[in-house]
């Protein structure tokens, strides 16, 4: 059993370590984009990301600008890694235990529905309404980075709880993107994408463990998904979920892919995405104009207030009803801090913004709201955690503590 525990804990520690460092790189990339977009070279920022690039040729050639190559191409790797993380947690991680998964799952649902509802209440309707999905997302890289910087003021249980919430949050966000942000649908291309996924499942079924065998199928699935009208990044999630979580022919395929690809995602893909998408024009009164628009305030209220109410409120309710328990070393006073950090919605929030809106001015207003809300959520979450005792073991009911000790000892 010790080997099984190590197989789960080691990838989790590596994940948290990479997310912490990745959060720093992500912050630098976002700051660089903001400086570039508001410098004398601001025109060059827009021109650079609008440059056209073609891959392939003839009937299978794809021409996109660099911004779309990042959002529709490079980000597939990011969503593939998310798919791997979801699969691991559901099969061998914390979310495999229904009681352990109940609390973060329900808290994540609250942290999705309440922000979306508050956003709709603030904007009321009109052209801003499609952005209701923006405040649903939590950026785990930034959030875990804040927890790590707090050191002993944040328990390991709080980190695990936030990570579990973020994984369920990712599942819900992926579903929202697939269902609500698909404008058109080409059935034959969709059938081709599904056929490619079935081919990958067959290859897996016959016991092929080498990731290279799946690469041609993966490219086919991505291309078909792109052409189908469903957002291409969902191909990455689907392929990640098909990856076996348990060893195949003695080889830990999922673990190997995570070790190879997570650093690439954290240190290359996501920072490049931030560089391409966080460059918001704040000059000539644009910042003041943004804060005079409902879309900006809808996102700020949704992320800052909605996440705290949704995550912390549901968590307290579930614990009161004894439907689930916190990690054994997480103090109940850390719940508000974790809820506030859930309001750091950066990567996926920016991603949904470009799906929700086509008007450049509204997109910039939404991005201002995301940046402002994420900054407020980070400061508020850190402040709440600094005033909360951590690692005392007082959070969970005694039965939950015994259950946790039993799993640890075996």
List the helices and strands and how they pair.
Blueprint: H1 2-37, H2 42-49, E1 52-55, E2 62-65, H3 66-91, H4 98-123, H5 140-149, H6 156-180, H7 187-205, H8 215-228, H9 233-242, H10 253-277, H11 286-290, H12 294-321, H13 335-341, H14 347-356, H15 360-386, H16 398-409
Antiparallel strand pairs: 1-2
Helix pairs in contact: 1-5, 1-10, 3-6, 3-9, 3-10, 4-6, 4-12, 5-6, 6-13, 7-8, 7-9, 8-9, 12-13, 12-15, 13-15, 14-15
Short description:
This protein is an all-alpha fold and 410 residues long. The chain is 70% helix and 2% strand. Strand 1 (52-55) and strand 2 (62-65) form a beta hairpin.
Q: What report would you give on this structure?
A:
The chain has 410 residues and is mainly alpha-helical. The chain has one domain: Up-down Bundle (Na+/H+ antiporter like fold), CATH 1.20.1530.10. It contains 16 helices and two strands. It has helices at 2-37, 42-49, 66-91, 98-123, 140-149, 156-180, 187-205, 215-228, 233-242, 253-277, 286-290, 294-321, 335-341, 347-356, 360-386, 398-409; strands at 52-55, 62-65. A hairpin with a 6-residue loop joins strand 1 and strand 2 (62-65). The longest helix has 36 residues, at 2-37.
């Amino acid at each position: 059993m010790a080997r099984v525990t190590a197989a789960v804990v080691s990838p989790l520690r590596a994940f948290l370590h990479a997310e912490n460092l990745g959060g720093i790189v992500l912050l630098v990339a976002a700051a660089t984009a903001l400086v570039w977009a508001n410098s004398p070279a601001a025109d060059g920022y827009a021109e650079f990301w609008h440059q056209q690039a073609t891959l392939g040729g003839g009937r299978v050639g794809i021409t996109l600008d660099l911004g779309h190559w990042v959002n529709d191409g490079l980000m597939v790797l990011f969503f593939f890694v998310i798919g791997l993380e979801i699969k691991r947690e559901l099969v061998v991680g914390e979310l495999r235990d229904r009681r352990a998964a109940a609390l973060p799952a329900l808290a994540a649902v609250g942290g999705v529905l309440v922000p979306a509802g508050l956003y709709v209440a603030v904007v009321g309707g009109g052209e801003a309404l499609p952005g209701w999905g923006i405040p649903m997302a939590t950026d785990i890289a930034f959030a875990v980075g804040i927890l790590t910087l707090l050191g002993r003021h944040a328990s390991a249980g709080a980190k695990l709880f936030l990570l579990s919430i973020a994984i369920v949050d990712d599942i819900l966000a992926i579903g929202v993107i697939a269902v609500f942000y698909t404008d058109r649908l080409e059935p034959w291309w969709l059938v081709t994408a599904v056929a490619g996924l079935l081919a990958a499942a067959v290859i897996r079924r016959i016991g092929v463990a080498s990731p290279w065998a799946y690469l041609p199928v993966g490219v086919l699935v991505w291309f078909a998904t792109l052409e189908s009208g469903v957002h291409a990044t969902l191909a990455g999630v689907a392929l990640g979920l098909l990856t076996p979580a348990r060893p195949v022919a003695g080889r830990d395929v999922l673990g190997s892919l995570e070790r190879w690809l997570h650093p690439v995602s954290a240190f290359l893909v996501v920072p490049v995405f931030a560089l391409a998408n966080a460059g918001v024009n704040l000059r000539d009164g644009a910042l003041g104009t943004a804060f005079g628009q409902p879309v900006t305030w809808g996102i700020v209220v949704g992320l800052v207030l909605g996440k705290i109410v949704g995550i912390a409120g549901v968590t307290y309710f579930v614990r009161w009803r004894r439907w689930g328990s916190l990690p054994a070393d997480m103090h109940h006073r850390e719940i508000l801090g974790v809820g506030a950090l859930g309001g750091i919605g950066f990567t996926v929030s920016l991603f949904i913004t470009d799906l929700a809106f086509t008007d450049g001015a509204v997109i910039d207003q939404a991005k201002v709201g995301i940046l402002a809300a994420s900054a407020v959520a980070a400061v508020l979450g850190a402040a709440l955690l600094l005033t909360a005792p951590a690692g005392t073991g007082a959070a969970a009911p005694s039965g939950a503590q015994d259950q946790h000790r039993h799993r640890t000892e075996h």
